[in-house]
Design brief:
single chain, 105 residues, mainly beta, six-stranded mixed barrel, 2 helices, 8 strands
Length: 105
């Protein structure tokens, strides 16, 4: 079961990233139902975790601007199961998108 909380009208859950033999790193993410991907993290977090680079992509943001951003690969623990997910590099608060929510109840 995945548990979260609501702060300032934002639903939040902690996602645990596998960090290559070190302890799992918990990152509090805001649930963003308008984001169809899995996760976003700021560049300094992606660099600090040394997440492997996958590709660049063009993303359309909520304010209808289009940006080019890097995509990295991370292993997370989601509902007790290790899962590889694409992480978009976006500044601001980490977001959890609907790709992780699909199939959850």
């Amino acid at each position: 079961m995945i548990r979260g909380s609501v702060h300032g009208l934002q639903a939040r859950v902690t996602v645990y990233l596998q960090t290559g033999g070190r302890l799992d790193l918990g990152v509090e993410c805001v649930i963003d139902t308008g984001f169809e991907g899995a996760l976003t993290l700021p560049e300094r977090a992606v660099d600090g975790l040394a997440l492997p680079y996958l590709t660049d992509l063009t993303a359309n943001l909520a304010d209808n601007t289009t940006i080019r951003t890097a995509v990295h690969l991370a292993t997370i623990v989601w509902d007790g199961v290790e899962k590889e997910v694409a992480v978009l590099v976006l500044e601001g608060r980490p977001l959890l998108g609907t790709a992780l929510l699909e199939g959850c109840r």
